[in-house]
Design brief:
homodimer, alpha+beta, Mth169, Chain: A, 3-stranded antiparallel sheet, 2 helices, 3 strands, 39% strand, nucleotide-binding (chains A, B), PurS-like_sf (chains A, B)
């Protein structure tokens, strides 16, 4: 089974990478960009039947820094 | 309007970051992880009515390196 983990910065946490992307988009002439936030996407190929709780455990222990980041898990198939 | 851009490495492209995550998960005792691929998630807050074509243009020109990466756009609201 496959699972996707989306890791995003909590609101209020400064995001210099997002700011840099925002600035670069404006430099390329893209108007109408209000804000950009950068996050991570981690695609896991797991043994069949891995419980959601185990994936959440992976997120808490390694994939996300829960002090400053939120995570969302999406199971695929 | 908001849009999410998912940038993933094309299959066949080596992914050292994913490999490192895989190794670290095993080190933490998580069994049954077959593969890990790391990608990027970019959340855009755009002016209302920004066409899909413009977002694709942003991806091709800046957000993704289309030689080695695929991108997928998801419009939210």
């Amino acid at each position: 089974m496959k699972a996707r983990v989306f890791v995003t910065l909590k609101s209020g946490v400064l995001d210099p990478q997002g700011k840099a992307i925002h600035h670069a988009l404006e430099g390329l002439g893209f108007a109408g960009v209000n804000d950009v936030r950068a996050g991570k996407l981690i695609e896991l190929d797991l043994a069949e039947g891995t419980p959601q709780a185990v994936i959440e455990d992976m997120c808490r222990k390694l994939l996300a820094n829960t002090v400053i980041e939120n995570f969302r898990i999406e199971q695929v198939g």
